[in-house]
Design goal:
Oligomer: single chain
Number of domains: 2
Number of strands: 6
Shape: elongated
Helix content: 55-70%
Radius of gyration: 32 Å
Largest sheet: 3 strands, antiparallel
Amino acid sequence: MIQSELNSEIEKIATALQGLNTNTITGALIGELIPKITPELDVPKVMGTPSGKGVLSQFIKRYLSHILARIEKQGSDWVYSITPAEQAEIDPDLWRTFVSPHSSRTLAIRDSTLTLDAPTKLNLDPNENLKTIESATDSELDQIRTDFSNTLKDNSESMPEIQAPYDEWSAALRKMGRDRYRDWTEYRLRRLEELFNERLMVLEIAPELNTKLRSVMRRSQLATKAVFVAKKTQTNQNQIPNTAIKSHSMESEVNLRSAIIEVIQNLSISDLREIKLPSGAIFDAIINQSKK
């Protein structure tokens, strides 16, 4: 099994474990679930050791330590806590930095500690174990758009040139229908994730760290989406009070006019003569009355 396939299988296992309706799980149950989740994955072969006691524990320590942590013994077995996918607070700027060719920030892996930083300035200490990850370039992003446009076949003629501003290009795509635009967002996300993995492969990142960083980046992308949804929700909530105020204002005006009419109707002629009203408004009212 090649590295990219192994990484994919590890992600499947992690996702399945985090989807369980429990916060803990025994090593024995993990051992039963892995073949069901990833039938092609041979744990002893991956670890390079014969099947036997300790192989599963080594596998968990190497590939699943970012979501599983030992908490206690249950007989001869270990009980692990499962870290929920949404528990760790991930900076959405990690994803934004990677997909922004002209970002002022730089992604970095520091000291093989399974962390991913987006510092404004890198520490150039020669003793520090630091590797930087290049953001997606303009040409790489354009290539992703080009490849997707090629999948449109007959409809590709209605799309602007790739050199056109992204806003213009995406607006044309939206006009082709919601499903087509959804296809684009899914395609773009998949290609960017593949690009990030290629960056890690070039840096010769260890398999377990590779899996961890890809998980971090995926959660950062989800955090970016969550921030967008939160802002949109807040905007909608802010609009509701404004609408209510406007409605209340209109209702108050109607009530005021009704009250004034009621008061005027009960006034004597002498009191009416004392009321100051615009002559133009009075003249228009006389005209309207004569037409009825």
